[in-house]
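ok new one. same drill as before - structure tokens go in, u give me an amino acid for every spot. 202 of them this time. try not to just spam alanines like last time pls lmao
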């Protein structure tokens, strides 16, 4: 390690036999956070517009290395489903936000990045009741880039936040033909996980 060609701030000797880059000189996983699935059941015909907070997850990482680092996040959403009675439509909306700097505030300005849901209508009977139908939509587990890559100087922190809400386009107020037997309107968000990765700004 005394060779003038070796930067001891960037490399280290392992077992006295070989060199390896120090952790801050490599691409690596630096932070994670997780929140479990939310399961909700709705009144199928209360006629009330829906705007329900389902869950949120936030993760942060501070650059404690001696050099500038780039950081970015991935959001993994577990399998999810939305089941709605006919004449209702709605979706799970995912929103994203991030802040960075020295002691940054938690993200509060969130932007919608995805929507997943369903809606179905078979029409009305002569008695102004909805024909019976149940529609179901499912989405498999997926991982997506989350927010923007950010450059952090030593001592700076980045925070990423994801928020899930259920939003309705329309919610019926009438009883389906045949009554409420075997009707359902519910959802399962699946779990949400945020992972932060970092690499040196060389």
């Amino acid at each position: 390690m005394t060779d003038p060609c070796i930067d001891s701030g960037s490399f280290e000797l392992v077992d006295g036999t070989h060199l390896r880059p120090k952790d801050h000189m490599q691409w690596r996983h630096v932070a994670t956070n997780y929140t479990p699935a939310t399961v909700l059941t709705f009144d199928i015909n209360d006629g009330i517009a829906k705007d329900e907070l389902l869950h949120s997850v936030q993760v942060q990482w501070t650059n404690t290395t001696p050099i500038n680092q780039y950081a970015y996040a991935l959001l993994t959403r577990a399998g999810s489903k939305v089941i709605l009675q006919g004449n209702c439509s709605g979706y799970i909306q995912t929103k994203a936000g991030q802040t960075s700097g020295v002691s940054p505030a938690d993200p509060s300005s969130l932007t919608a990045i995805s929507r997943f849901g369903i809606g179905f209508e078979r029409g009305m009977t002569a008695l102004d009741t909805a024909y019976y139908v149940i529609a179901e939509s499912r989405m498999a587990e997926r991982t997506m880039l989350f927010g923007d890559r950010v450059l952090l100087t030593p001592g700076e922190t980045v925070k990423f936040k994801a928020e899930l809400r259920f939003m309705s386009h329309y919610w019926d107020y009438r009883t389906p033909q045949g009554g409420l037997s075997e009707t359902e309107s519910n959802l399962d968000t699946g779990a949400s996980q945020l992972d932060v990765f970092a690499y040196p700004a060389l």
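The radius of gyration is 24 Å. and btw The chain has no helices and 14 strands.
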